[in-house]
Amino acid sequence: MDATMAAEARERVTKWIEETRQLFTLLPELLASETHVSERVNAAQKEIEKIKKEVEDLRKENHQLRVEKDDIAQAMGQIAAKLGIAPRKSPFERTPGGDHAGKPGEQAKPAEPPKAAEHPKT
Question: Under a CB-based contact definition with an 8 Å cutoff, are residues 101 and 108 in contact?
């Protein structure tokens, strides 16, 4: 190895040593950051599990409520059949001409004709 090659090698080694020192000064900061990120990941995973459980509980509750709704609808249909009333499919369904009957079995009263406006006599 001649003198120029040795000088270049020495310069490269010196440069590597300096870069290594800089990396070692950054290492504690990187490790602290990694620990912080790890803690956040663990907290997020716990939150995800909690939310998954809540969603599953809500799905079960929703299913139970739908079953109860169907049971109530069936019971109401049976009651309506005993009373001779045709049940609606939806509480929001409207009959032609509106839904003005008061009690079941009662006919809606025909509307009274409007009265003529009375004028005072002069």
Answer: yes
Unique residue bearing structure tokens 């009690």 = 103
Cβ atoms within 10 Å, residue 85: 13
- Asked if residue 105 lies in contact with residue 82, where contact means CB atoms within 8 angstroms, the answer is no
Contact between 83 and 104 (Cβ < 8 Å): yes
DSSP track, 22-51: HHHHHHHHHHHHHHHHHHHHHHHHHHHHHH
Under the banding of pLDDT at 50, 70 and 90, the label for residue 63 is very high
Backbone angles phi, psi at 30, to 5 degrees: -65, -40
- Max intra-chain CA distance, the chain: 135
Any alpha helices (H) in 2-122, and if so which ranges?
A: 3-83
Global model pTM greater than 0.70: no
